[in-house]
Amino acid sequence: MNPFQFTRVTTPKAAISAVTKESGTYFLAGGTNLIDLMKREVILPERLVDINRLPLATIEKTATGLRIGAMAKNAAVADNELVKKHVPLLSQALNAGASAQLRNMATVGGNMMQRTRCPYFYDPSMPCNKRSPVQAGPDKGRANGPSGCGAIGGHNRMHAIFGASNKCIAVHPSDMCIALVALDATVNVSGPKGDRTIPFSEFHRLPGDLPQKDNTLLPGELIMSVDLPTNRFADNSYYLKVRDRASYAFALLSVGVGIDMKRGTIQDVRLAMGGVAHKPWRLTAAEAFLKGKPATEANFKQAATLAMQGAKGYGENDFKLTLAPNAIVDALKTATKTA
Amino acid sequence: MTNKTKNPPIDRIDGRMKVTGGAKYFADFELPNTAYCVIVGSEIAKGAIASLDTQKAQGAPGVVGVFTHQNMPPIPGWDAPVGGEADGPAPKPKTEETYRILSSPKILFDGQPVAIVVADTYERATYAASLVKVTYTKQAPRTDLEKHLSEGVAPKGAEGGNYLRGAADGYKTAPVTLEAHYTIPVEVHNPMELHGILAHWTDDKQLMIYAKTQGVNATQNAMAQAFKIDPKTIHVHTEFMGGGFGMGLRTWPQETAVVAIARKIGRPLKLVMNRSQMFTLVGHRPYTVQTINMGADQAGKLIGIAHAATAETASYEDFTEATVNMTKFMYACPNVSTRYRIVRLDRSVPIWMRGPGEATGAFALESAMDEMAHKLNLDPIDFRLRNYSETDPERNRPYSSKNLKEAYQRGADAIGWKERRNQPGSTRDGGWQIGYGMSTGVFSAFRWEASARALLKADGSLTIQSAVTDIGPGTGTALTMIAHTVLGVPLNRIRIEYGDTSLPKAPTQGGSAIVSAVGSAVYDACTAIKTELMQLALKAGGPLAGQQTDELTLADGVLSVSAEPKKKVAVSDLMQANKLTVIDKTKDSKGSPEQEKYSMYSFSVHFVQVRVNPLTGVVRVSKAVSVADSGRIVSPKTAASQMIGGVAGGIGMALTEEAIIDHRFGRFVNNNLADYHVAVHADVPAIETIMIDKPDPIINPMGAKGMGEIALIGFAGAVANAVFNATGQRVRELPITPDKVMQKLT
Ligand SMILES: Cc1cc2nc3c(=O)[nH]c(=O)nc-3n(C[C@H](O)[C@H](O)[C@H](O)COP(=O)(O)OP(=O)(O)OC[C@H]3O[C@@H](n4cnc5c(N)ncnc54)[C@H](O)[C@@H]3O)c2cc1C
Ligand code: SF4
């Protein structure tokens, strides 16, 4: 690990100005991702700004739904009564992630900002465009490592089948974010140029030609909170996570479902998939198809087929082309209790 | 006597110490003025170091030295083989390449040490290590066994020989035949405790070592050879190990390097490797590809089996294991042939991993047996019983003991085998399909040479000493139990000292042999004390004069006449009367000649129930029953724990464990515990263990056989067989991950 400066702040303002002032400065929340990246020398911060004392950990009811502070711990959100009652999908998704110890440290903001788990990204001796968008020169040392995409033509079992580019095929690894994108969350951020609100589906981005950019947050911006609108999905929601072991493994892929059902008919539905794209992947075509239709296996299969349009495998992850529609059907059956 | 009656379950003697931090592992030892070192590993798998810049690292705070091939202190015994198993560094046959740590710019495998950075703290050494700049001349690495299968060579030694009984292609003449290929990926031991060593030259001739080794005597010998010094001047201490699973069965080159550097810098030096180095520097279970050809008749009698295995090894050392052995004797089959080959690749050398060789082979053989049973429409247990070997068909001699039929029966009853339908995919529960599978495991029951010392004091306390290390199975508990049974000393008056070269010599903890080997020595030493006590009591003028030895009972510190318990003498009185403060006996146990007349094996049977989601391909082991037929169980509780641990490892082997290499670079991509999946609690159901607990009359006086390996051997096959029974999908490549099981949406 490289030497770095450490600052502790108590107000969002101080946090933002500290990060804006010097390049190479990072917010430190639970540290469960950032510290690992520092140990592996993927990121070499000059300064860490500890934001754990910011008063941003509340979970409260608002006029339009729920507001969850950016510093709320993953475990606290998952166990919160309001969350369990109004957005059980979020609670399920959080509990499907990481381990109890990690969830006790990890924060909502940090979870959204966590980097991909692509193994080439984590190993600075391996090629990776996300870590090293430009080829490292001799002066840059080994911190950046070689550019290129190690996963294309390599070990890409965990990688994207939607929206990848020839620069990067990584996926966003979060479980929580699948629930948030499905539930139409919005993100409140504060930055050197003021406050703004970002729809969750626009928070993360596809890699395109800038794989180093995971999201649309601007330099110096701090995530303050996430808003969740009121919904009618609580009775029929389900988070299905398919993974290589029963716990403490990232998703091969996951499906988040929320359904408003009346007498066997789908009034409204939200569907999103994780582990398939560089961002939490909303299945809008499948949603549109299912709306107003009876909850039958035939309809679920059709929706799954629609969801798969444009999917592309990269070798080791070709199985996701079969697994994804299967998982969509399985999740819909479970959420509608028609399994 | 131990083997006449079942032993009571007693608590692990070191349990409290382990959970309260009282047990000291090698890295827990602190010596004044210790320096710490960190290994910089190669970032290529084949080629050479082109340039090496250590200047920045040398200048970093706290740095004591940076050692590379340019300035590594000489190791005088380099050309004596460094390493080796058991009691001696049995030299491996020489290959074209040699690997001598930090001796040349040549790179032979991913992660090969290119520098060792020494500083006054671990953190400073870590930082300085990040400043070492290395550039390489790369060559294309050959690491993919699948691509080099045709380059297999027959290794020297017993394991390399082809075996033939009857006709090599006898299976072809059978009315029902099958050919199947089975693959096991690279698996890594990944114990919780990281590997390393603490070395301290108290002067230029006296060496103190705290190591992570499964045998202190083996480390002592290896270091004596490497540094050309008298083993007596080397003191090795390893009382506890935080899991070994085979990785500590030899002395690794980096351990030798640390000892050499410690001498050079004149300070104690500690190495604790990091997790990714655990994948490249301390061995692994080799990637192995196997083919089984099998033929049987309609009556379910095996006509022939041919079993061929090809495994990877390093370019610089031939590693072999007994992958195909089980096939030679497991079933009564007239035509059996086996063949074992290794391919030298640009990989670090493998080492035995729990259930070495046999676990790999059993997956293939026991999967094939299940496949054949299915073809014959026979229950898999029934098929095995029709081919049950009452005597060893390989060596044509009796088994010292074999209660496998009873094991099949008891396991089947416990899992609810009668619920199983022979037709795959017949049982459902909602969206899940349920299946049952079983498999047999077997491992040689060894009895190696070992010595132990027993000291009975006049105050009634007993001390047992042996150099053996307890790598976790409960060796100390088992040895305590053996001593207790012979001498009747209450458990809380027995003290055991082990894991140190100052104690009587013992073999390396491995091969499930320790209870048999060291246990026999403890038994003999305690029996010698007992004999002496009896002689004192029976001699002319002694308190029990006139009686015969076999009329006496020794229990709770009192020697009495069995038929007339009132005729007795307290051991303490007897010793005092003879002016003895202690009776001190050391015994070497060598095994008995009748061992040559019998084949000695421990057997196991594993039963599992799985639940499979056909849409997602997720497999859950929902029930597991493991039955051990390993002679008299010396310590029932720790024996059950061994089985439970073996099953947990078996679930990992079956469903999750795989170290993945990117063959373009010849390097691991999942070399950490987040991406290399060992089974977690959620993967492991409640495990039922059943002990047949019948003494083996031949192997040793306790009638006990080993059980560490059989707990794992065969388990993965049972899971694969259950997955087949649940779904009709036969997975022949471990691990059985969702992508291999999910079925296409129709
Ligand atoms: C072994 C392991 C297994 C895991 N398994 C899973 C899993 O199965 N599913 C899953 O979803 N996740 C998993 N995780 C990831 C885990 O969820 C994340 O590490 C965690 O959510 C990050 O939160 P944190 O508060 O610790 O962030 P930190 O590590 O502190 O920060 C991460 C990044 O976010 C930035 N950041 C933090 N807060 C803010 C803010 N308010 N505004 C702007 N930027 C901010 C930081 O600067 C940093 O760049 C796993 C992690 C590990 C180590
Ligand atoms: S997929 Fe993306 S993160 Fe992974 S190696 Fe390629 S560029 Fe890097």
UniProtKB/TrEMBL annotation, chain A:
Keywords: FAD, Flavoprotein. SMART domains: CO_deh_flav_C. GO terms for molecular function: FAD binding; oxidoreductase activity. Coiled coil: none annotated. InterPro entries: CO_DH_flav_C, CO_DH_flav_C_dom_sf, Diverse_Substr_Oxidored, FAD-bd_PCMH, FAD-bd_PCMH-like_sf, FAD-bd_PCMH_sub1, FAD-bd_PCMH_sub2, Mopterin_DH_FAD-bd. Residues 1-233 form the FAD-binding PCMH-type domain. This is Xanthine dehydrogenase family protein subunit M. It comes from Spirosoma sordidisoli.
From TrEMBL, chain B:
InterPro entries: Ald_Oxase/Xan_DH_a/b, Ald_Oxase/Xan_DH_a/b_sf, Ald_Oxase/xanthine_DH-like, AldOxase/xan_DH_MoCoBD1, AldOxase/xan_DH_MoCoBD2, AldOxase/xan_DH_Mopterin-bd_sf. Residues 20-140 form the Aldehyde oxidase/xanthine dehydrogenase a/b hammerhead domain. The keyword NAD does not apply. SUPFAM superfamilies: CO dehydrogenase molybdoprotein N-domain-like, Molybdenum cofactor-binding domain. Keywords: Molybdenum, Oxidoreductase. One of its GO terms (molecular function) is oxidoreductase activity. SMART domains: Ald_Xan_dh_C. Pfam families: Ald_Xan_dh_C (PF01315), MoCoBD_1 (PF02738), MoCoBD_2 (PF20256). PANTHER family: ALDEHYDE OXIDASE 1-RELATED, XANTHINE DEHYDROGENASE. This is Xanthine dehydrogenase family protein molybdopterin-binding subunit. It comes from Spirosoma sordidisoli.
